[in-house]
Design brief:
With 399 residues, this protein is an all-alpha fold. It has helices at 3-10, 13-51, 55-99, 108-176, 182-190, 214-263, 266-321, 342-353, 360-366, 368-381.
């Protein structure tokens, strides 16, 4: 029935007149029938309470119950035209509501909602795929940044080891000087090379990240080494040349100290020798502190750079994650059962989380259909369910 036809059916004056005229009279007649039936039945109840049941009273009660059934039937027939019309009116109103209810199947709003649901699912899948790709890219950029920082630290450690090794050689030469080898040591220190060896290119000991290809790793190592090489060359030349010149500047005074030791008596010689050793030890300790402090600052700078690159990668990933429009969705999981036995798993989980905490009355409402089935099975086939908390009780009804 169309909306227009429903509206025409409702607004007929004769229908409204029927309700207005018939309803009060039918209701009053049924009220009278109900009162008389109830009063007659109450008298039977009072008699049974006073004198107890007898065959005569049982027959009269059976006759009354049959008359009560017939009275209910007559009352129903009397009010039926009115209530049916009420039901029709309610049905017509409901029909109008259902025609545009988004929850009702095949309505226009329902079909539009299904279009939105399908589109939202498609957009969500696209968004999830884009998010996964963005996460993979973010992880890759993060791996590159961490690998780059690790390579920088690795090359820096290799360079510091080389520089310290060469510094130690100069220091050992300086420590080995005596009047006998003074000229030879001076010549060796003077000719000590102050430029970074051109063939120096230490192998990398940094572990390759799982998501970084060997070619990408090779490119990063090449870029990092090329960027650091100029700095290493300048630092190597500066520090080795500075130390070499410092040693050469102090060699004449050291020679004089050695000559003084030779000219002095044993006690004075020991004092001068101890003073010379103390000054050299203090100078070496100072240089070692300066070297360690410099390495510490370099490592802090590398760590700060690593953190900044990580933050930059996260920011870029978050920026890429933003989309122009994403429909609001509510994602819920629905169970699709493909095997009847799977309902046992559903029931088991429900019983663990909720069912076991319910009362017998609440469970009786939920399992009314299953209990009724078992009752009929007991009546027809004498097959019984068995459990200590369950018993079958006979229910006797008079016909």
């Amino acid at each position: 029935m169309t909306v227009q036809a429903s509206e025409a059916a409702i607004i007929k004056k004769e229908n409204i007149a029927t309700i207005v005229q018939a309803a009060p009279q039918s209701y009053q007649t049924n009220v009278l029938s109900c009162r008389r039936c109830a009063e007659f039945g109450q008298n039977l109840l009072d008699e049974a309470a006073k004198n107890g049941m007898s065959d005569d009273l049982d027959q009269r009660i059976a006759s009354f119950i049959e008359k009560a059934r017939k009275t209910v039937q007559v009352m129903n027939e009397r009010r039926s035209p009115v209530t049916k019309l009420f039901d029709q009116v309610r049905s017509e109103f409901t029909l109008l509501e259902n025609a545009i209810d988004p929850a009702k199947k095949d309505t226009v709003p329902f079909r539009l909602q299904r279009l939105r649901d399908t589109y939202a699912a498609k957009r969500r899948e696209e968004e999830e795929a884009r998010r996964r790709a963005a996460e993979v890219q973010r992880q890759l950029e993060l791996a590159k940044a961490e690998y780059r920082a690790a390579c920088e630290e690795d090359y820096l450690n290799s360079f510091n080891n080389l520089l310290n090794s060469e510094i130690n050689k100069l220091s050992e030469l300086n420590a080995s000087v005596s009047l006998e080898n003074y000229a030879a040591v001076t010549d060796t220190v003077t000719g000590f090379p102050v430029t970074l060896p051109s063939e120096w290119c230490p192998p990398s000991s940094v572990r390759l990240p799982y998501n970084l290809s060997p070619d990408d790793a090779r490119c990063i190592r090449t870029e990092v080494f090329a960027a650091l090489l100029r700095r290493f060359e300048e630092q190597y030349k500066f520090e080795i040349e500075d130390l070499r010149q410092d040693i050469l500047d102090k060699l004449p005074s050291k020679k004089a100290e050695l000559e003084r030791i030779v000219r002095s008596d044993a006690a004075e010689a020991e004092r001068v020798k101890a003073d010379l050793a103390r000054r050299e030890a203090e100078d070496a300790a100072r240089k070692e502190r300066e070297r360690r402090e410099k390495e510490r600052r370099e490592k802090e700078a590398l760590e700060l750079k690593r953190q900044n690159e990580q933050i930059g990668g996260l920011f870029a990933a978050n920026k890429a994650a933003a989309s122009a429009y994403t429909p609001k969705v509510k994602v819920s999981r629905k169970i699709v059962v493909t095997d009847p036995a799977a309902y046992l798993s559903v029931l088991h989980l429900w019983w663990q989380r909720e069912g076991s905490a319910l009362s017998v009355e609440e469970l009786g409402k939920i399992f009314r259909k299953q209990v009724t089935f078992c009752e009929k099975l007991a009546d027809k086939e004498e097959v019984y369910a068995e459990h200590p908390g369950l018993e079958y009780v006979e229910e006797v009804k008079a016909k």
